[in-house]
Amino acid sequence: MKKPGKERPRNKMINRLLLVSILFFLIACDSDINSVDESTELLGRDISIGYAKGFEIVDYKKFKKLTIKQSYKGNNQQFVYLLASDSVKIPSTFSGEIIITPIKSIAALSATYIPFIRLLHQTSSIVAISGKNTIYDSTIYQLIQKGIIKDLGEPELNIEQAIVLNPDVVMGFAIDAQGMSRLTELKRFNQSVIINAEYMESSPLAKAEWIKVFGALYDLDSLAKTIFQQIEKDYLQLKRLAETAEEKPTVFTSVPWKGTWYVPGGKSFQAKLLKDAGANYLWHNNPESVSLPLDFEVVFAKAIDADYWLNVSTFQSLTEMQLADERFTLFKAFKEKKVFNNTKTLTAYYGNDYWETGAARPDLILSDLIQLFHPDILKSQEFNYYERLR
Questions:
Q1: Cα distance between residue 110 and residue 132, in whole Å
Q2: pLDDT at 230 over 50
Q3: Residue 294 DSSP SS3
Q4: Same fold for the domain at 40-229 and the one at 243-388?
Q5: What is the C-alpha to C-alpha distance for residues 269 and 265, in angstroms, rounded to an integer?
Q6: 321, 333 in Cβ contact below 8 A?
Q7: How far is residue 301's CA from residue 327's CA, in Å, rounded to a whole number?
Q8: Which is it for strands 150-151 and 126-129: parallel, antiparallel or unpaired?
Q9: What does the domain layout of the chain look like in residue ranges?
Q10: Out of 3.40.50.1110, 3.50.50.60, 3.40.50.1980, 3.40.50.10260, which CATH number does the structure's domain 243-388 have?
Q11: What is the DSSP string of 102-151?
Q12: What does R_g of the chain's alpha carbons equal in angstroms?
């Protein structure tokens, strides 16, 4: 039989090993709370994007990677943002601008961002906008008038005021290198800038799907997904209804501006809306997603006998149009008083909800278009944005 005294040194060693193991376990657990294991990179899950081409989101459980694929037409530079709470340490294998989420404040440099933020019930986070006279939302406009929400100016951005406000995120867009340089200047002062390329999407539902970007910033991914699914469902239901129409009326849009008539390209979101509403857009075969600059004579020759004329700038009566250009009266659509404008929600300072909420709610626009093209299959409803000119 072994003597008891001989076991003591061995017991002490076992106890020490147990203590070290427990401490190691506790440290590992604590570390897991505040950091992300490198192996997390292998567990990324793409958030489903069905229509939008301009962004992608990968969920790594404790943080998300948002990639904006293009900043403006012709520039394929990508922007990567790592979205995480301030308690999470991003693995060294990832690179990108870190954005602490959920964000609490935002400078929204386009009126089209407001409806996305409003749908997520986060309008109180807006601390600045750009160009107050483009804003339709009356609540936001009143807060701007009171100085509670700051106007950073348009087209020149008040860099100094943006820096003083120091929002969690400045969200803006660029249509060229000059516009990009203004946003880049903000980054020089350690201001987080999110590039939003929603305006470049050529599909109405693709534009609406950008609510998922806002959902990621506010940590409201599930809500954003639910909202978009409902918009998608309503839009596709309306589209199927329009497909039952026996006839497809011909339609053209716009009026000349400074001598040039800009019509939507055949691959633009406006052309897509007209097609989905059961209309025959006269330039639907054009391969461009941007507007086409045309002479008056070119449009006149093609559209003189078109059934409908839409989106005629800010004109609110046929008389106004005639006074502006007597040649407008020669179009069949004018003669038959089938001219409709998206000015029902136009404010005195020319803010228009068609261009604001319409970006997030294409189903509302599609409903209007089907009503005016096919009143026999969708009637007895109020227009959301359109009105018939008298």
A1: 10
A2: yes
A3: strand
A4: yes
A5: 9
A6: no
A7: 12
A8: parallel
A9: 40-229, 243-388
A10: 3.40.50.1980
A11: S---EEE-STTHHHHHHHTT-GGGEEEES-GGG---HHHHHHHHTTSSEE
A12: 27
Q: Name residue, tokens 């009356």.
A: 138
Both tokens assigned to 117: 């933020």
Q: Nearest-5° angle of CA 349, CA 353, CA 359?
A: 135
Distance CA 266, CA 283 (A): 5
Cα–Cα distance measured from residue 38 to residue 72, given in angstroms and rounded to the nearest whole number: 33
AA identity, residue 163: I
Answer with the residue of higher pLDDT: 74 or 56.
Answer: 56
- Any idea what the Cα angle at residue 30 is, between residues 29 and 34, rounded to 5°? 115
Q: For the residues of 54-105, what is the DSSP string, one character each?
A: SEEEEE-SS-EEEEE--SBTTB---EEEEEE-TTPBPPTT--SEEEESS---
The answer to whether the beta carbons of residues 44 and 67 sit under 8 Å apart is no
Cα–Cα distance for residue pair 65/239, rounded to 1 Å: 33
Concatenating the DSSP letter of every residue in 180-217 gives: HHHHHHHHTTT--EEE--GGG--SHHHHHTTHHHHHHH
Q: Taking residues 131-140, report their average pLDDT.
A: 93
- Rounded Cα distance between 271 and 239, Å, is 14
Q: Determine whether domain 40-229 maps to CATH 3.40.50.300.
A: no
pLDDT beyond 90 at 296: yes
Question: Amino acid identity, residue 30?
Answer: D
Between β-strands 79-84 and 64-68, what pairing exists: parallel, antiparallel or unpaired?
antiparallel
What is d(CA 57, CA 49) in angstroms, rounded to the nearest whole number?
A: 8
- Residue 268, both tokens: 């633009």
- pLDDT of residue 346 exceeding 70, the answer is yes
Cα–Cα distance for residue pair 160/322, rounded to 1 Å:
46
Which tokens hold the place of 219? 């940590």
Tokens of 2: 């072994």
Q: What's the pTM value of the predicted model, to 2 decimals?
A: 0.87
Contact 61, 43 (CB under 8 A): yes
Q: Which two tokens stand for residue 85?
A: 């709470």
CB of 36 closer than 8 Å to CB of 193: no
Return the DSSP state at 317. Answer: S
